[in-house]
Write a structure and sequence with these properties.
It is a single chain. The protein is α+β, with helices and mostly antiparallel strands and 426 residues long. It is 30% helix and 28% strand. It is built from twelve helices and 16 strands. Strands 5, 8, 9, 10, 11, 12, 13, 14, 15 and 16 form a ten-stranded mixed β-sheet that branches. A hairpin with a 2-residue loop joins β13 and β14 (366-374). α1 packs across α3 and α4 (71-82) crosses α6.
């Protein structure tokens, strides 16, 4: 059939409003709304048939049951439901009543057209209401991950809104030992601080094994500034609780749920966090980031550089140390799950590369060693051998017991590319 004949068949299946007529021909022409298409086709049919032109009020349309006349109303309700948080992007979704979906199919069947012809009611409704929301709020639609997700539930006659998280990227340095990266609830009382009616002996009633963490010294400040409801700390790996994080720092992302503020002065935020942490933790390079930065921080292949103070139980010469270090430099290390973490890690053998190694003897029983290794290389065990679980090891090569007395992480960098790529920042 010609377009005119098809339009006549749709119009005669009426009463059908202009938007519902136009949706059947949504793939025809550009720059028109479906209502424009429907009105134009209805006029063309009236002219071709030499019949009076008669419009159909959406309230009389058996297909959409009046919903195509409520675009403005739904947009107003959506804007009211959003409230006044700061946002720049949005997306609209519609829960379409089953009856309207069924009517959509029946309209095409009655007109002798394919069931999937044109555009669904839902797509048209999303666009028309969304366009009006954008005009009212001065914001833009985003089909990826918008600041605000709006759901129009027609069946329940309800508007649902969700403020998606905001993300702040940066690097932190941990300047005091015995501070974990994230909160460490007591495993005996599960963070409650009590065992029955008595304070928990394991954590002295604190609920945490450590009173502070990098997360607790940073995330609350970001949550307060962005006026969110929850904060989650995502780190690019983590250092041991007794290790310092120095040098260029460790990449991290703080995720803020339901933020009422998104555009914040990150330089000022950086200063606020550093003041709050009182020298225990420092952050730098804060930037507003996309949600994909969380996955990047967690998944990007990264290498780590460590500086370890090592104690030997017998005297070692400089020549012996340098020979052992030379053996480790570039070596492939096999590490069975270390004894100190086997209660929370699967027991298996991991293979990791030492990318670089150097060391200097401080005195016959002490040395400072620097190791550049693949992510996941256990440095304490690389030094001690972990009773044969790590091969080769510094202790094994020297033939003496060796223990890390202090450990510092001095760099965490991407192997093939840096963590900081402009594509991930706002």
């Amino acid at each position: 059939m010609s377009v005119l004949a098809e339009a006549r068949a749709v119009v005669e299946a009426g009463p059908v409003c202009d938007s519902c007529v136009g949706r059947v021909f949504a793939d025809r022409s550009f720059g028109l709304s479906n209502a424009d298409r429907g009105r134009s086709l209805r006029i063309a049919v009236a002219l071709d048939d030499d019949e009076p032109y008669e419009s159909v009020d959406p309230d009389e349309c058996w297909v959409c049951e009046g919903e195509c006349g409520r675009f403005d109303e739904w947009a107003d309700r959506a804007v009211d439901a959003i409230g006044d948080p700061e946002f720049g992007t949005y997306q609209v979704g519609t829960k379409t009543p089953p009856l309207i979906e069924e009517n959509d199919e029946l309209l095409r069947m009655d007109a002798g057209l394919d069931a999937d012809r044109g555009e669904l009611f839902k797509s048209n409704f999303n666009r028309e209401v969304g366009k009006r929301i954008g005009q009212q709020t001065g914001t833009e639609v985003d089909f990826g991950r918008p600041d605000v997700q709006i759901t129009l539930d027609i069946t329940a006659d309800r508007v649902e809104t969700k403020l998606n998280s905001a993300f702040v990227y940066g690097r932190y340095r941990k300047l005091e030992r015995d501070i974990p990266q994230t909160e460490w609830p007591c495993r005996e009382c599960h963070g409650s601080g009590r065992k029955g009616s008595r304070p928990c002996d394991h954590c002295d009633g604190e609920g945490y094994l450590y009173p502070e963490s990098v997360e607790q010294l940073t995330a609350p400040v970001v949550m307060d500034v962005m006026d969110g409801t929850e904060a989650t700390f995502h780190g690019a790996g983590r250092e041991d609780v007794d290790a310092l994080m120095l040098g260029t720092g460790r990449p991290f992302v703080i995720e803020i749920e339901e933020p009422y503020r998104r555009t914040v002065d990150t330089e000022r935020l950086e200063g606020d966090i550093n003041a709050f942490a009182e020298g225990k933790v420092e952050v730098e390079g804060l930037r507003l980031a996309d949600y994909e930065m969380v996955e990047r921080v967690k998944e990007l292949d990264a290498s780590k550089t460590y500086r370890a103070a090592v104690a030997f139980d017998a005297a070692v010469t400089s020549e012996e140390l340098q020979a052992a270090i030379a053996e480790l430099d570039g070596a492939t290390i096999e590490q069975y799950t270390p004894e100190r973490v086997d209660h929370r890690r699967a027991g298996l053998t991991r293979t990791r590369e030492v990318l670089g190694a150097s060391g200097e003897l401080d005195d016959p029983n002490h040395a400072t060693v620097e190791i550049h290794g693949e992510g996941g290389l256990y440095i304490k065990e690389l030094v001690s051998g972990d009773e044969g679980r790590t091969e080769p090891s510094l202790a094994g090569l020297l033939g003496v017991d060796a223990t890390v007395t202090d450990l510092d992480v001095t760099a965490v960098e991407g192997v093939d590319e840096p963590f900081e790529r402009e594509a991930y920042f706002l």
